[in-house]
Amino acid sequence: MAVILFPAVLNGLLTGAVYALVALGLTLIYGVLHIINFAQGALLTVAMFAAFFAHQTFGLDPYVAAVILTPLFFLLGYALQRLVIGPAGHGEDRNILLVTLGLAVVIENALLYAFRGDTRTIDLPYAFDVVEIGTAFLAVPRVIAFCAVMLVALLLWLLMRWTDTGKAIRAVAKEKLGAELAGIDVAHIYAVTFGLGTACLAIAACLLIPTYYVNPSAGNAFVLIAFTIVVLGGMGSVAGALIGGLFVGVVESLSGLYLGESLGQIGIFVMFILVLLLRPSGLFGERT
Amino acid sequence: MRSVTPILVVVAVLASVPLITASNVVLNFLVMALLIALAGQGWNLLGGYGGQYSFGHAAFFGTGAYVTAILQMRYGINAWLGFGIGILAGALVGAVIGWLSFRSGLKGSYFALVTLAFAEVLRIIASVAPITGGGVGILITLDLRPAAFQFQSRAPFYWILLALVGASLLLVRTIEHSRFGAYLVAVRENEDAAAALGVDTMMTKLRAMTLSAAITAAAGCFYVQYFLFVDSGIAYGPWISIEALLAPLIGGVGTVFGPLLGALVVKILGEVTKLVTGDAPGLDLVIYGCVLILVIAFAPRGIAGIIAAVHQRLRVSSGRAADGVGARP
């Protein structure tokens, strides 16, 4: 039994790490702007296409591309919030929700129009390398992804904890009006947060692309999972997103093992609905 | 009576279209527009009047469609009866989802999320369950008799759909002028204040959601009878959730005619896009998304809001003119 279970749990943790990174971006945005970014999945797809073409056209290894794409996606996210979501939302939650939904529709279908529904993959020499831990054989790119996510989470935590920008973000998240009175440029902080959330997606995409495929709806597979993690971990909680991500990865892996692939996803959704209904503030969040 | 007259006029004008033209292109176009108007009116009742934005109205549309199809094909039940039961099933799903989520105090982002998740769960279940035909979907056998809810020409379909749309317009107009409607708007504007004044907010939202689901389910039931086919992507896919909210938002959220107006505009826009670009996949939805963002940015009250503003301005200026004519002491 342990012979099957151990690799399943380990693999679940590796998958969960990438989920956690997608969720990290989502939770960061929720924690500060108090809206759910429905465009998160579509932006992840854009990042995956960017990583794909970085390799295809410029021959860049995805891990090298991450170094370039991350700042680019930060700027993209910053611009989206500053130029589209902020002005169009008029500061009303309902409107902001709809604007992000509209963005998702536009991005996803623009990709469909540009690249058709074809599924693409890249070939890397090390894609099928494995490391052996006990009875488990783990794909090297996935192990790299796991370590990279931990590093990103640590950096993000340091940024939030020790830099002035991090302090400003936390101030805006806690008390927007007070922060504004203290001289913090709230619109700027909103955009920075959105940029950070989007930058997380660029990293996630570069970590995914060696072992995953990309098509215009590839990012969607991660959206509801990311929502689940965010709700599970408590909206706005960085540590919650990380733990929730790993947890969901293991749940998916185990329910896939016992119930089969297609029903494994249902396990996640059922968990999601249950958590939303029973404890909407999440397992780690504060009770509202 | 005065408040009902515009509805009767609009329905009468639309009803005369098949008498003027027998063109299938025109009727097909109008059927799709009315279908979205009906689904959108459901969304409008809950989202527009009640302020509860659902991103998963596909859950109701799909349930109506599947129940109508399954009852006919698997149990041999008469299509008209299946249609009615389909609407009730949609209402039931609405009541259950509403009860679960309102009881947990979900609103705003959370409510949008949970409705989206329910629609998605239903889609996945429908794509594997044997009773829904799994990935193949359900094909309704051709049986061109009015008793089987199938007609030789498109006109009867069109009139039935128009009757449904007309009924939804009258229903929403009646609600608008009722105590329940006032409660609903109070919940939208400030739920805590409404509760403090003695409005049973839970019950109000639940009633709105059930009615809303029934209306959108009716659109789903009609879809199946018209196209004689349904699968999990059509029934529970995100397209219908998006179109159902797009129509009222563009036409004028929280207004009786908003969904109809918005649906016509959206469909015309879609046809024009197809004409210009030659039916490229995805491009019509790109346009819809852009329109959605632009409407929210520049006309948050939709076309109805623009009309009201223009009307207001005309009235003010004509009022001034009248003042000028009248001799002032």
Number of helices of chain A: 11
Order of helices and strands of chain B: HHHHHHEHHHHEHHHHH
State the major sheet of chain A: 2 strands, antiparallel
Radius of gyration of chain B, whole Å: 21 Å
Of all chain pairs, the largest interface belongs to: A-B, 46 and 42 residues
Main sheet: strand order of chain B: 1-2
In whole angstroms, the N-to-C terminal distance of chain A is: 42 Å
Total number of beta strands of chain A: 2
User: How many DSSP-defined strands of chain B?
Assistant: 2
Oligomeric state as shown: heterodimer
Helix content of chain A: over 70%
| Mean pLDDT across all amino acids of chain A | 85
Give the overall form of chain A: globular
Query: In this structure, how is the largest beta sheet of chain B organized?
Result: 2 strands, antiparallel
Low-confidence blocks of residues of chain A: none
Task: Label this structure with key terms.
heterodimer; A: 288 residues; mainly alpha; two-stranded antiparallel ribbon; 11 helices; 2 strands; B: 329 residues; two-stranded antiparallel sheet; 15 helices; globular
Q: What report would you give on this structure?
A:
The complex is a heterodimer of chains A (288) and B (329). Chain A is mainly alpha-helical and 288 residues long. Chain A starts with a helix and ends in a 10-residue tail after the last helix. Chain A contains eleven helices and two strands. In chain A, strand 1 and strand 2 (136-139) form a beta hairpin. Chain A is globular and about 60 Å long. Chain B has helices at residues 5-15, 17-20, 24-49, 58-75, 79-103, 109-128, 154-176, 179-189, 191-196, 201-227, 232-236, 238-251, 258-277, 283-298, 302-325, and strands at residues 138-139, 229-230. Chain B is mainly alpha-helical and 329 residues long. Chain B contains 15 helices and two strands. Residues 324-329 of chain B have low confidence and may be disordered. Chain B has a two-stranded antiparallel sheet. The chains are: A mainly alpha (288), B mainly alpha (329). The interface between A and B is large, with 46 and 42 residues.
